[in-house]
Amino acid sequence: MPRFGVHASIAKGFDQALVEGQNLGCESLQIFTKSASQWRGKAIDPESAAQFKKTRTGLKITPIAAHNSYLINLATPDDALWTKSAEALREELERADLLGLDFLVMHPGAHVGTGEPAGLKRILQGLEMIASKGSKPKTRLLFEITAGQGSTLGNRFEHLRALIDGSPRGWKTGVCLDTCHILAAGYPLGTAQDYRDTFREFDRVVGLKKLHFFHINDSAKPLGSKVDRHAHLGEGHVGKEALRQLVNDPAFTDHGMVLETAKEKRDGIAMDEINLNFLRSLASK
Question: Which of 49, 120, 170, 182 stands the most exposed, by the fewest C-beta atoms within 10 Å?
Answer without folding.
Answer: 170
